[in-house]
Amino acid sequence: MTATPARTPPPATPVPVLYRVEGAAVAVAAVVLVVLTGFAWWWLFALFLVFDLSMLGYAVDHHVGAIVYNLGHTYVAPFVLLAGYGLAHALDATGWTPLALVAACWFFHIGVDRALDFGPRPLR
Known about the structure:
Blueprint lengths: L16 H20 L6 H4 L15 H11 L3 H15 L6 H19 L9
Organism: Micromonospora wenchangensis
Protein name: DUF4260 domain-containing protein
InterPro entries: DUF4260
C-alpha cells in the first residue's frame, strides 16, 4: 500500500513592485467606476470574495487550480464586461449597468490582490 502524498499549499509568485503599484491604481480606478455608475461603495467588499471561487480548481489538483485561478485573476474578463457595458451605453440600451458593477468589483479584487503581493500562480 502506498502512502498518499501530503497536499501542499499552492505556491505563490512574488509580484514585482511595479505591478503592485499598478494593482493599487486599478483598485482606486475601480472605486471611481463604482461611484460614477451610481452604486454604493460597499458593493466592492460585498462581492470581494466571489472572485476567489476560482480557487476551487485546486480541489482537482495544482495544475488545474493554477489555470482556473489565473483565468479568474486576469484583467481580460472584467474588460470584456466593461466593453459590453460601454457598447450598451453607446447604443442607449438600459439595464446594463450591473455589468459595470461586476467589472469594477472584479477589477478591484484583482487590483487589491496584486497590491498585496498575490500574483498569478505558477503552473506545475
